[in-house]
Amino acid sequence: MIDMGVRDPDEFSAYRWPDWSFWKDQPGRHGAYDRGRVVVAVAMALASLTLIVQAVDIAHGTRSAPLTSLAIGLVACYGVGCLLAPWYGPMALRRGRVAIVAVMFLLGAAPAVLLGKSAYLTDLTYTLSIGLMLLPLRYALLLGLGTVLGQVVWMRLAQGEVAWAQVATLAGVTAALGTVFALNFTIGHLRATREQVRRLAVNEERERVARDMHDVLGHSLSTITVKLGLTRRVLESSGDVAVAVGQVTELENMARTALSDVRATISGYRTLSLDSELAGARMALGAAGVRADLPASTDVVHPELREVFGYVVREAVTNVLRHSDAELCTVRMGPDWVEVSDNGSSTSGPGAGNGLTGLTERLSAVSGTLEHRYAPGGGFHVIARGPAQAIPPTPAQPWRPARATEPPGTERPGTE
């Protein structure tokens, strides 16, 4: 059951702290992320040029020289803060962000308080913009609302009227700069997401190629190894050159076939035939001295499942050659299932290695399942099932052997 009280991490929340982590250096993408940072800094620098007007107005005021100098110094510090805060603030921790906004607010409000001019509070728009950039939206909006109300109340009490043009400037400039930050924030996250998707696609393709190479070369190299051993024994025992030459010829053909499969796999155009896999399994098992009990035809299998079942037969037979001491390997199949079993010892078998994991992924792609287990009396079973409910049933064919169309049970079909 879905917990409705748990918020989706990707869902917008006014309480969430803005995540500017995409500004951090990332391999191969320094330019794109630094560009967004520069855009924000330039936008703030251009907007804060209006502080020059405030400094000039303070300099032409009637206050004492020390107070005027202090106020101009505070405006200068405020201007420097407007440049540094949007550059370093997004990388700061939460307490650091709060401290930056607080210091900026004090620097921006200090000249207005020292000189008693509520109009100077309009320049707090830069602090509010930085607050929108660094703080959760809820708190930034509360800070902005409090500043606007404070300026309105101060004007009403001190002057008896409100200069709505200045209030509108405070709110308008804040909204404009906040929009620039929000757009930069969104674009930055989209770029970061696109980069992540690209990396995932590359990793997925690598896994696919690795799985295909394992499926192609694993079976071929196992068969070649077995036949090389047989050739060596023939030469050592009887010295029958004709038999050895026949084995070497088959090895040459298998090597060429494996090379063609590798080239086709890299090109992405390789197709696999269940009939050819059964024929290859018969030859490989025979070369290893394992008796093969294989179906004579694959017509019973649904066409949509023949390719993936070919991978199942290839991998399961390869595991028998590699890991099993079996004397018999049996393959049975139906319209939407295939079973490969052997009579090896109960302690032999491949376990859940890369091959079986790859088969599970291939079957999942066609909504199928893979089972593998040790039999109680010895031997290892691999059973693959396709989506029977999604494929229309094949009409009954009385002339086929009954054991080739019955789904596999707990016992291996066709054995005592």
UniProtKB/TrEMBL annotation:
InterPro entries: HATPase_C_sf, Sensor_HK_TwoCompSys, Sig_transdc_His_kin_sub3_dim/P. The chain crosses the membrane at residues 38-56, 68-88, 100-120, 126-150, 162-185. Keywords: Kinase, Membrane, Transferase, Transmembrane, Transmembrane helix, Two-component regulatory system. Residues 205-271 form the Signal transduction histidine kinase subgroup 3 dimerisation and phosphoacceptor domain. Residues 386-416 are annotated as: Disordered. GO terms for molecular function: kinase activity. This is Sensor histidine kinase. It comes from Streptomyces hyderabadensis.
